[in-house]
Amino acid sequence: MQRELTPTEARSGIVSGRVFLVLASSFIGAVIALGLAWALFIRT
């Protein structure tokens, strides 16, 4: 059986999940931006 989380522990889990989400979405955005830059500048 799991012990109950304190509000602080629960909040830290939410925050770390949000940080991971931001990192993942910014990484995906960077990949898309690089792909667009490659398509526009290198293939002209």
Overview of the molecule:
With 44 residues, the chain is mainly α. The chain has a domain at 19-44. 82% of the residues lie in helices and 0% in strands. It has one helix and no strands. It has one helix at 7-42. The termini are far apart.
Quaternary state of this entry equals single chain
Q: Per the principal axes of the C-alpha atoms, what is the gross shape? A: rod-shaped
SSE order, one letter for each helix or strand:
H
How many alpha or pi helices? 1
Radius of gyration: 19 Å
Q: Indicate the mean pLDDT.
A: 87
For the biggest sheet, the summary is:
none
Overall SS class = mainly alpha
Q: What percent of the residues sit in helical stretches (DSSP H or I)? A: over 70%
The number of strands is 0
Beta-strand content: under 5%
What are the segments in which pLDDT stays under 50 over at least 5 consecutive residues? none
Distance between the termini: 61 Å
List its salient traits:
44 residues; mainly alpha; 1 helix; 82% helix; rod-shaped
Tell me the layout of helices and strands.
Blueprint: H1 7-42
In short:
With 44 residues, the chain is mostly helical. Helix content is 82%, strand content 0%.
